[in-house]
Amino acid sequence: MLTSSDKNNELFLGIDGGGSKCKTIVMNKDNEILGTGISGPGNPLHGFEQATNSITESAHLALADAGLAHIELNEIIAGVGLAGVNLPVLFDKMSAWQHPFKTMHLATDLLIACLGAHNGGDGAVMISGTGSCGFACVDEQHTIVGAHGFPHGDKGSGAWFGLQGVKQVLLSLDGLVSPTVMSAVLLNKLNCNDDTDLVEAVASKKATFYAQQANLVFDAAELGDKVALAIVDEGAEYINNIARTLTAKNPPRMSMLGGLTPRLKSWLADEIKVELAEPLNPPEVGSVIYARQQQAKESMQQSA
Predict the structure, then answer these.
(1) Structural domain count of the chain
(2) Could you tell me the CA-to-CA distances from 107 to 27, 204, 241, 281, 300 in Å, in that order?
(3) What is the pTM of this model?
(4) Helix residue spans in the chain (DSSP H)
């Protein structure tokens, strides 16, 4: 069994909190993942109390999964990467949280994704999941491209593709654009008979709902559907432009990640695809890397 000293020095929690879920891992000094826990949304923009509850719950679940439920959260250092804390007001609010950990090192979800993808080294990432953005870390200089939120931003994301699909289906049903195979698929999926039913079904829906409709756009595009092809081409070109903007920062590596990556990657420009490297680690591992980096800096400052 781990001693108290071992518990304090060898274990780290790596936490990745996003709009749909919060994932925590327990990692030891040998970079072995001992356990994983997943709970509800962890983006404080969508609710501070919900986010803090999700963070705590996922941490407990990860310890239980590792067979370490006897260890208290206040004995472990946590790296916490969250969506939403790129906004200073939310970063400050989360920093002031009376967290349950021994120490909490807070970062944006963009930074931990980049650190994970490049194993703590410099690099850039393009993220296309429910939302979209680009991020580069080169010589300790951070660059963010996009990350403005849905629906006013996040072009090239799952939510954006889904919304465009719905909009074009409505236009097609009115005869204002070419017929599209997306119409029958979407109406059937949402149990709708016509455009009026469809409007009722999608009214006031959030980003996660629209992201769930993204695959039908790609399915139709792969069948040669002209309406769907136009959507995919537009979204892919936006991601291409994010990549070109990040490339100007001269990152040594660039990766693409997020739930939409398997569908979208093949539609990118050839000169972008050849530059993409597979992520070395997921974002929650990036949270541990960040926590270790911060611990090392603090130790250096204390010994100086």
Answers:
(1) 2
(2) 18, 31, 26, 17, 20
(3) 0.86
(4) 4-10, 48-65, 88-95, 109-117, 158-173, 181-189, 195-202, 207-211, 214-222, 226-247, 261-264, 270-273, 283-303
What pLDDT, in 10s, does the model give residues 188-201?
A: 999 999 999 999 99
Q: Positive or negative, the Cα torsion across 248, 249, 255, 260? A: negative
Q: Residue 15 belongs to what domain range?
A: 4-119+280-303
Task: With respect to residue 129, please indicate whether it lies within any of the assigned structural domains.
Answer: no
Task: Give the position of tokens 């120490």.
Answer: 103
CATH number (domain holding residue 51): 3.30.420.40
Question: What are the tens digits of pLDDT across the range 163-193?
Answer: 999 999 999 999 999 999 999 999 999 999 9
CA distances from residue 194 to 89, 106, 175, 188, 203 in whole angstroms, order as listed: 44, 48, 13, 10, 14
Rg (CA), the chain: 21
What CA–CA distance (Å, rounded) separates 232 from 221? 7
**Which residue type sits at 193?**
N
Could you tell me if 87 and 169 lie in one domain?
A: no
- What is the number of helices (H) and of strands (E) in the chain? 13, 9
